[in-house]
Amino acid sequence: MMNRMVNAQLVTHGVGQGLFYSGSVMPLHHEGEVNFVYDCGVRDDGKGHPTLASTISTYKGTLPPRGSGGKKQLDLLFISHLHDDHTAGLPELLKDVETRYLFLPYLAEWERALVFMQSSGGEAWFPSFLADPVLFATTELGVRYVVLLTGAEPKGGRPGREDNPDRPPQEDLEGSLDRAVSMLEDDPNRDRTLAGERGLPRWQSLKLDQRVLLKTDSRPLRLPYWRFKFFSAPPNQGALAQFRNDVNALLRGRSLADLLTSPAGIKGLEAAYEKLSDSSRELHWKVNNTSLVTYHGPNNQALGDAHTSCSGPNCCKFVSGPCLGGSFGEPFGTLLTGDLHFLYSDLYLQQMTHFASEQRLISTLLMPHHGARSSWNPRLLQDLPNLKQVIASASVHSRYGHPSAGPIQDVIQAGRDYYWSRQQHDVRVDMHLRV
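and the corresponding structure tokens:
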């Protein structure tokens, strides 16, 4: 029964060549507000990320003081993948903020070493984060719980399962959040996964305290008025087998932290990576494909209206005239894509199957990989029949050419609205719903 009014504010922040997306879902006259962030990073510009720093500061001012001791509280933090243009702002974002749940795609140690080799560097804390993201998040960033997500088995062929979609909403957010996370399906291989981590003794203590959880993407995270559904695809390890074997050999008797911080360790990683240099572009794609794709939207059928606006006058690259935004009605779902390469046919089909029940609910799409031509699949415009708008997050002068003209022209010719979140130009969607 639709009898609750809910406001939602969703912002693709203008941080340049990176991604920082936030959301707030606020029931009117009811408990249960939830705040969440999807990625917080920017590619190193040699200037200390001034846009990102000021944007984070402004955003933190909006968080409610619901944490212990009156601290600001962030309920959910989702990191699509571990590249620095999606993670660079984490220490600043979480400083003096109580973060309840951090969701990450699980990557083995050798995969995190590959991320290190493909990152621009510059952040002193980044090697420690890659060496042990669980320990770093819980000790240095103050995250309460870490949820590591893996792809459900078997992959493809079946949509993600629902967990009683008609159950009534719980208005105690903190309790309902814990219950919702507990209902995510446990990774059946979690013990074997943990055994492969050299940080096992530290992870084991966190696991016993239920502070680190290994889950699959098979079920949605269902909160009182809003739900999230994930797609986590492992990299195609066939082309990476040589690098994996070389890194695992380097790790015998040594920690990943040592490899990422010592001259000898880095030299060994460089030698392993150099063997695959002819395939570096392909490898980059495969690591991008670990992106945690996330759908979010109202828990039940919703009525109401939404309005999209830009904080700058020219946020529509390759579109003449001012970008004024516009209003739309149902549906109200959003698909956040990280850097996943949708052009891969097998991966695309897996994802579309996984989100089969959400395809008609998606009104907003975050353009994959900052609008890169190599990641775009025009079939998205056919397979998401109620898609109304597409948003790209990229720099004004991106040296990668993001966002590309081809994908944007596809969007415009299909009659969808297109927005470009760039430096200091936010794209904001305000929803007023009855759920």
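(Above: one complete record from the training split.) The first strand starts at residue 5 and ends at 12.
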